[in-house]
Write a sequence for this structure.
């Protein structure tokens, strides 16, 4: 899942938000330098990704992408699922999206100094430029995908996944609405941060 979904599935604390995003910046980082709450957040991140990657609805959504670009489908779906989460926000929580975004950005800012440098850069940029505002719009998703395409270090057609999404929007949305409640229930029941031991 992408940043918004990971934060949505985190606890409303600075350490949990930090840990739940740390999974995307884990390389070369000694996690033993962080406290238990951050480490549990990191484990939660991994559990979210593991469940997502194996869910039947997500696997079916990946098959909707052109074979030439299917290797990029997981990344494209991560981004688009954040858009769909915003679109259907009130289905999953009574907290307003604006309130959640403000709270999450505030919690992340509290831990910015402790984050690995690459994470500081990305999270700082996300807050300053309010990526979630972009994710709420179809054109914002296209921009986000274009940015990712430019970061890939070899010639690719990743930016064309926008066409695959556009051609299959209704089915991808239906798959998301089947999958995401299952993910919420799984993390609530079996997420590392929600274990009875913690």
């Amino acid at each position: 899942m992408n940043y918004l979904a990971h934060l949505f599935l985190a606890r409303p604390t600075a350490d949990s938000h930090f840990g739940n995003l740390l999974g995307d910046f884990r390389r070369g980082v000694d996690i033993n330098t962080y406290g238990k709450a951050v480490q549990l957040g990191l484990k939660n991140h991994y559990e979210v990704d593991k469940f997502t990657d194996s869910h039947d609805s997500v696997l079916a959504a990946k098959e909707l992408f052109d074979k030439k670009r299917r290797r990029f489908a997981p990344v494209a779906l991560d981004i688009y699922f954040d858009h769909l989460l915003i679109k259907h926000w009130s289905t999953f929580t009574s907290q307003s999206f604006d309130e959640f975004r403000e709270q999450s950005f505030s919690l992340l800012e509290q831990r910015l100094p402790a984050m690995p440098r690459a994470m500081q850069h990305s999270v700082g940029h996300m807050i300053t430029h309010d990526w979630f505002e972009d994710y709420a719009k179809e054109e914002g998703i296209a921009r986000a995908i274009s940015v990712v395409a430019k970061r890939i270090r070899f010639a690719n057609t990743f930016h064309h996944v926008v066409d695959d999404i556009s051609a299959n929007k209704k089915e991808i949305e239906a798959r998301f609405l089947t999958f995401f409640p299952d993910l919420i229930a799984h993390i609530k029941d079996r997420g590392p941060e929600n274990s009875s031991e913690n």
User: Anything to note?
Assistant: The chain has a mean pLDDT of 89. The chain has twelve helices and no strands. Residues 169-190 form the longest helix (22 residues).
